[in-house]
């Protein structure tokens, strides 16, 4: 595990991009987190480096190549937002027109939301309805329309525009709007309008397309917090999830997409998006809680060491991916792993790469300890559709225990306790060692000032 295969070499801020230094970092990270395989791509100022590490499968032990295909999960949302903005420029869509204008048969649980939710709400995760809806509506071209016909079964937590909460189902709805105005299946519209013009020859939606290439297989831990991995036997996501997380790609293709956005909507002489639209996508639309500093149109936005960072992650059954852009330095980093705990590897490599190649430090937030009586306000049990989270006051902070059912493989597990410390009046960070270290959550008050929700990974859980 950890041996690199294949590369192209590029320039960094002090000379050559050091492939050997990246290898050393990746080998250490693969060993630390027991990740079976990974691919990494770096772009900076006209030069590119791509690498493959480890194996595509613990059963076959085939090596990961630089162009091996991985599921990229929710990075697909940025592709969907880009396609929507292209249609906005063509005058076929408008961000602030109610979605029901394009889908008159739309039916949501809340009548006010049904008539007021817009594409801007969908692309910024502010639609307010429950998002982790992964029911499978089959492989046919009608899968997405069947799924959208069931959105009325999803709870409306908050009015559209009032609160940021991660919403996969909102992107299904955006995909359905794309289908309606283009008259084509979502995947076809994406392939014709974005994949083909960008020359993305190894980017797909369907397993039968990916299987003829070098393709990674997902792995999850056998036990929560453990190092031993096993293959995830369910590979494809339901077709209706495509607009939110369905793309299968390689790091080279993802870097080409990143360059489109680094170049203000143009790549290799082809302009697919106006500079204004590209700028809008990277402009704050709403604060994004503990997920990022803010959210644009499809992009998560941060400021580190005084420099804007644009990016998005993706997590599917046994895969974790991340795309990071530093527009001010014409820099992009694409990371793929075939492990359910791959985000821990990606976070560490991202911090190292930004420091080594962009001179950007990523310090941990300063802790702001609260007295036990203040911590006790947050203690208790919180529930969401996939399980329960319990908080207790412990060692000057909060201890969290989660029992959750993975909605992609229907497996319920209780995770090892995490120790959290306050970094604000209502925001906490995991400080205990392990794959969750550094992750954040916040408590959202109700009208009476008491906690109404806890927001973890952007998802809301009710205080009970």
Radius of gyration: 21 Å
**Which structural class do the helices and strands define?**
alpha+beta
Average pLDDT: 95
Terminal residue distance:
45 Å
| Largest β sheet strand count, sense and barrel closure | 9 strands, antiparallel
Individual helix count: 13
Secondary structure elements and pairings:
Layout lengths: L3 E2 L5 E2 L2 E2 L2 H15 L3 E8 L2 E8 L15 E2 L4 H14 L21 H6 L2 H5 L19 H6 L19 H15 L3 H13 L8 H4 L8 E3 L7 E3 L10 H4 L2 E2 L1 H12 L3 E2 L2 E2 L3 H7 L4 E2 L6 E2 L4 E5 L2 E10 L2 E8 L4 E7 L4 H17 L13 H4 L4 E5 L2 E8 L2 E10 L4 E4 L3 E5 L4 E4 L9 E6 L5 E6 L2 E5 L1
Helix pairs in contact: 1-12, 2-6
Short précis:
The protein is built from 13 helices and 26 strands. It has 464 residues and is an alpha+beta fold.
General description of the model:
The model is unreliable at 7-15 (pLDDT under 50). The protein has a nine-stranded antiparallel beta sheet with strand order 1-5-4-17-16-15-14-13-12, with helices on both faces. An eight-stranded antiparallel β-barrel has the order 18-19-20-22-23-24-25-26. A two-stranded antiparallel sheet has the order 2-3. The chain is globular. Helix 1 (19-33) runs antiparallel to helix 12 (342-358) and helix 2 packs parallel to helix 6 (168-182). The protein contains 13 helices and 26 strands. Strand 20 and strand 21 (411-414) form a beta hairpin. It is an alpha+beta fold. The chain has helices at 19-33, 76-89, 111-116, 119-123, 143-148, 168-182, 186-198, 207-210, 242-245, 251-262, 275-281, 342-358, 372-375; strands spanning 4-5, 11-12, 15-16, 37-44, 47-54, 70-71, 219-221, 229-231, 248-249, 266-267, 270-271, 286-287, 294-295, 300-304, 307-316, 319-326, 331-337, 380-384, 387-394, 397-406, 411-414, 418-422, 427-430, 440-445, 451-456, 459-463. The termini are far apart.
């Amino acid at each position: 595990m950890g041996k690199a295969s294949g590369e192209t070499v590029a320039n960094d801020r002090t000379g050559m991009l050091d492939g050997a230094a990246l290898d050393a970092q990746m080998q250490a990270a693969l060993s630390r987190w027991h990740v079976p395989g990974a691919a990494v791509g770096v772009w900076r100022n006209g030069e590119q480096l791509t690498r493959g590490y480890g194996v595509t499968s613990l059963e076959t032990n085939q090596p990961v190549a630089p162009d091996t295909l991985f599921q990229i999960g929710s990075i697909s949302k940025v592709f969907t937002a880009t396609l929507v903005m292209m249609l906005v420029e063509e005058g076929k869509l408008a961000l602030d027109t109610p979605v029901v204008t394009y889908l008159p048969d739309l039916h949501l649980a809340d009548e006010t939301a049904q008539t007021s939710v817009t594409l801007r709400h969908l692309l910024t995760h502010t639609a307010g309805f429950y998002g982790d809806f992964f029911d499978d509506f089959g492989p046919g071209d009608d899968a997405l329309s069947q799924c959208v016909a069931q959105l009325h079964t999803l709870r409306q937590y908050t009015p559209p525009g009032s609160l940021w909460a991660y919403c996969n189902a909102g992107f299904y709805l955006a995909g359905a709007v794309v289908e309606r105005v283009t008259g084509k299946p979502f995947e076809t519209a994406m392939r014709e309008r974005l994949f083909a013009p960008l020359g993305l020859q190894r980017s797909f939606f369907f397993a039968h397309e990916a299987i003829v290439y070098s393709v990674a297989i997902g792995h999850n831990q056998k036990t929560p917090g453990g190092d031993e991995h096993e293959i995830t036997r369910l590979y494809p996501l339901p077709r209706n999830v495509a607009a939110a997380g369905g793309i299968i790609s390689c790091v080279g293709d993802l870097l080409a997409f990143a360059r489109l956005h680094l170049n203000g909507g143009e790549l290799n002489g082809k302009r697919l998006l106006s500079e204004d639209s590209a700028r809008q996508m990277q402009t704050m639309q709403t604060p994004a809680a503990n997920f990022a500093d803010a959210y644009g149109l499809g992009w998560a936005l941060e400021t580190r060491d005084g420099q804007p960072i644009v990016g998005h992650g993706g997590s599917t059954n046994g895969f974790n991916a991340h795309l990071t852009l530093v527009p001010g330095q014409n820099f992009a980093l694409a990371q793929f792993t075939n492990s359910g705990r791959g985000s821990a590897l990606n976070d560490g490599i991202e911090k190292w790469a930004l420091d080594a190649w962009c001179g950007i430090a990523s310090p941990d937030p300063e802790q702001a300890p609260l007295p036990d009586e203040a911590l006790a306000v947050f203690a208790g049990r919180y529930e969401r559709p996939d399980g329960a989270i319990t908080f207790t006051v412990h060692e000057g902070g909060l201890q969290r225990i989660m029992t959750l059912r993975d909605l992609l493989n229907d497996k319920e597990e209780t995770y090892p306790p995490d120790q959290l410390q306050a970094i604000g009046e209502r925001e906490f960070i995991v400080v205990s060692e392990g794959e969750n270290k550094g992750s954040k959550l916040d408590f959202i008050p109700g009208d009476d000032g008491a906690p109404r929700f806890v927001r973890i990974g952007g998802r809301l859980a009710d205080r009970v």
